[in-house]
Design a protein that fits this description.
Blueprint: H1 14-37, H2 46-66, H3 74-86, H4 91-97, H5 102-114, E1 118-122, E2 130-134, H6 136-160, H7 163-180
Antiparallel strand pairs: 1-2
Helix pairs in contact: 3-5, 4-5
Amino acid sequence: MVGGLPIKRHHGDEQLIGVYAARTAQLQLYSLACRMSNVPPSDPEPSEIASDLRYIVGQLARRTRERDIVTLPTRLAETLSFLDREGPMTTSELAERHSVRQQSMAAKLAELDAHGYLERQPHPTDRRKILIALSQDGRDRLNDDRRRRVSWLAEAITDRLNSREQRALANTLSLLDRLIEA
């Protein structure tokens, strides 16, 4: 019997029986899939979503670094990006915002300064303090790295996702933005 149907076996019919068996198995799987599609999926646990999201975002960040897309080391790019977003601030303010010791931040700033990516400005209200700001070279370097990352990611989206998947990805951006605000 194949698929519940009696089949007479003749010498040399093993291949034909194999085809019938494969087709029957295929139909049974299709039938099972059809029945299961009517079963409402259970809602995923928020902890599962969070774990998967953390992993995927981390992998995406690592993939960007692995591809030599970013020319600045991450630890330096983060500081330049922060200064670009938040504006000039003192070394101690930067250290506090990055949760590092002032000496560690001073060493990082010295490295950025050696490349010409920073400029120093007098504090507007306290003559004893110096503000650290992004120089035009620093801004250019940061923007170049950003363009490289965007270009790589846009290419990956175009190559890997169809138009329906691209729309779905675009729709999730507002949800991710809301998570950042949490």
